[in-house]
Amino acid sequence: MKNELARELSLAEGKHQYDNQVKRVLSNKIILAWIYYDIRFSAYLETRKERIRLLINVKAQKAFYPGYSLTTRGIFYGARMISAQKGIEFAGRDYDNIRKVYSIWICMNAPDYIGNAISKYRICKEDLIPGIPDQRNTYDKMTVVTVCLNPKSGKGNPLTRMLGLLLSPKIKGKVKIQQLKEEFAIPMESKSMGEKLNQMCNLSDYVEELGIQKGLERGLEQGLEQGKEQLLRLQIEKKLAKGLSPAEIAEALEEEEETIRRMIGDRAV
Fold first, then answer.
1. pTM score of the predicted model
2. Residues of the chain with pLDDT under 70
3. Residues 95-123: pLDDT tens digits?
4. Separation of alpha carbons 245 and 257, rounded Å
5. What is the Cα–Cα distance from 233 to 201, expressed in whole angstroms?
6. Beta strand pairing status for 117-122 and 44-45?
7. Which of 30, 68, 128, 167 is the most exposed place for a label (fewest CB within 10 A)?
8. Which domain of life, per UniProt (predicted)?
9. In degrees to the nearest 10, what's the CA dihedral of 129, 134, 136, 139?
10. Do the beta carbons of residue 44 and residue 52 sit within 8 Å?
């Protein structure tokens, strides 16, 4: 049986590999086309045939609230992507060349009260006293998008249904490939795409199995510890009933006197 450190390392390695595989699947151009379905038109300025460069960051999260707001973290990532452009996209004071950034967050286990949902956060102009011309290209530099997925939810749209199928840990790779091809017309002839999906599903099973094994082992260990403690408390009760002092009980049960006093104190509380 693996020790605690070995189990933790195995599980961590599995999770790391699975997370990386999810990123690889999401980075596929066919999948990205679905995620950006509402902004693809801005890839070109039709009037001037000028190519627009967008900086896009996609993150997949297992929890809707991992101790902080995903929206706030998305804003932080977007701001960092903007500041990182200096010296690469623009130099000196040439701030007009800042490229727009998108920070897209996909939450795979949204709570039931949210279900399947999509929200977009962006910078907007508000005229307190009208007069300043509206030049959207000067301030529309960052958009944060949150996509929440919940398999039990009856609401949603084709995007949430496709991502829910793609990222489901309970559906086998072969089934995913078939359904993505039939329901969403996503070509699966690409060997690379099929391999990525199968690898992601296999790693999901591996991580789940490690987690179950770890949980069972921990449950057994905790059960034994609790049983041992209950037995000790029962023995202490009997010794106290006979009028023995904490020191005498500790000697009789071959336990530390501090442990006996602590348990007697807990009993008193």
1. 0.59
2. 1-24, 27-30, 33-35, 37-53, 188-227, 266-269
3. 998 988 888 898 888 999 999 999 999 99
4. 10
5. 47
6. unpaired
7. 128
8. Bacteria
9. -40
10. yes
Q: How crowded is residue 145: how many other Cβ atoms within 10 Å of its Cβ?
A: 22
Helix ranges (DSSP H) in 27-95? 29-35, 70-83
Cα–Cα distance for residue pair 204/172, rounded to 1 Å: 10
Report DSSP state, residue 142: E
Tokens of 215: 């949980």
pLDDT in tens, 212-229: 445 544 555 555 566 677
What single letter denotes the amino acid at residue 195? E
Can you give the pLDDT at residue 147?
A: 92
User: Domain segments of the chain: what residues?
Assistant: 4-216, 220-268
φ, ψ of residue 125 in degrees (nearest 5): -95, 135
Helices (H) and strands (E) in the chain, counts: 8, 6
